[in-house]
Design goal:
CATH superfamily: CNF1/YfiH-like putative cysteine hydrolases
Strand order of the largest sheet: 4-5-8-7-9-13
Number of helices: 6
CATH class: Alpha Beta
Distance between the termini: 27 Å
Shape: globular
Bound molecules: zinc ion
Largest sheet: 6 strands, mixed
C-alpha cells in the first residue's frame, strides 16, 4: 500500500518531496507519528524510521519537527540538522510553521483534525509546512509564513504551489459562537445551525487566506478529505474521542544529485 497521501501539484516537481502519512495497521499504533501523546517512545521512533527510509533514498538527510503550541510563530530552519525527530526535547520550541531553503531537509507537522498546509516556491527554491487549527487560522499563520518566505528568500506568492492536507471538514466541525466569531469576516467558511452553533470550514479558510496574499487559486490543491469522516485512513481527535495518534505532513527538497 502507498504509505502516503500525496498532492498532484507538488508531485510534478522532481526536486520537491512531500507526503502525508496515513494510518496503517501493518505498523504499531496504526502508524502514529506522535511522541508527545504518551505512547512508547521507541515504537513511535520506529514508525518515524520507516518514514525516514522512504525518503532517504531520495537524498534527504535531516528531519525537523516543532513543539506545536497553536501559536502563529514561524521558524526559519537555517542549519542542516535533525530536530525533534528522536526526542521531543530537541524540537523547535513553541512554533507552528517551519520554512527552509536548505536542500536535504524535510520539515514535518503533526495533526489529527487541524489543517496542515504544505508550501513550495519552485522559483526561489524554498518550502514550508504549517499547522493551522482554529487559533492558527484566526491568527492567519499561513500569511505570516509566506511573509517570512518573502523576507528570507524573496519568494513571490504568485509562483507558489500549495497543498492543504486532510483535516476536519465543514461536515464535522461544529463550533460555538466564541470560535465562529473570529471568522465572521470570511462568511463562506461558516454555516449557521439552528442550535446557535456553526459548522466551520477551516481548510477553506486557509485556502482563502492563501489567495488573499496572492497565491493563485489554481496553484492550491485541497485534499478533499475530512479526517473525521475518514478515520480509517487518518487520525481524528474529535471523531475518535481525543485519540492520541497523529499523522505527519512532510515537505522538503532533495539534495542535488
Ligand atoms: Zn466530515
Amino acid at each position: 500500500m502507498e504509505p502516503f497521501f500525496r498532492f498532484e501539484n507538488l508531485g510534478q516537481y522532481a526536486e520537491c518531496l512531500h507526503g502525508v502519512t496515513m494510518k496503517n495497521a501493518a505498523h504499531p499504533l496504526s502508524f502514529s507519528m506522535a511522541l508527545h501523546t504518551g505512547e512508547t517512545k521507541e515504537t513511535v521512533i520506529a514508525n518515524r524510521k520507516t518514514v525516514e527510509r522512504l525518503f532517504e533514498k531520495k537524498q534527504i538527510c535531516h528531519f525537523v519537527l516543532a513543539n506545536q503550541t497553536h501559536s502563529d510563530h514561524v521558524h526559519v530552519v537555517k542549519e542542516p540538522e535533525t530536530k525533534g525527530w528522536e526526542s521531543l526535547e530537541s524540537a523547535v520550541l513553541d512554533c507552528d510553521a517551519l520554512v527552509t531553503n536548505l536542500k536535504g531537509v524535510m520539515l514535518g507537522i503533526l495533526t489529527a483534525d487541524c489543517v496542515p498546509v504544505l508550501l513550495y516556491d519552485p522559483v526561489q527554491k524554498a518550502v514550508a509546512v504549517v499547522h493551522a487549527g482554529w487559533k492558527g487560522t484566526k491568527a492567519n499563520i499561513v500569511a505570516k509564513t509566506i511573509q517570512t518566505m518573502q523576507c528570507e528568500f524573496g519568494t513571490e506568492p504568485k509562483n507558489m504551489i500549495a497543498g492543504i492536507a486532510p483535516s476536519i471538514g465543514q461536515c464535522c466541525y461544529e463550533v460555538g459562537e466564541e470560535v465562529a466569531s473570529h471568522f465572521f469576516h470570511l462568511p463562506d467558511v461558516l454555516n449557521a445551525k439552528h442550535n446557535g452553533k456553526y459548522m466551520l470550514d477551516l481548510p477553506l479558510a486557509n485556502k482563502m487566506q492563501l489567495m488573499q496574499v496572492g497565491i493563485a487559486e489554481e496553484n492550491i490543491e485541497m485534499s478533499g478529505i475530512c479526517t473525521a469522516c475518514d478515520v480509517e485512513h487518518f487520525f481524528s481527535y474529535r471523531k475518535e474521542g481525543g485519540c492520541s495518534g497523529r499523522f505527519m505532513s512532510l515537505i522538503g527538497m532533495q539534495l542535488d544529485v
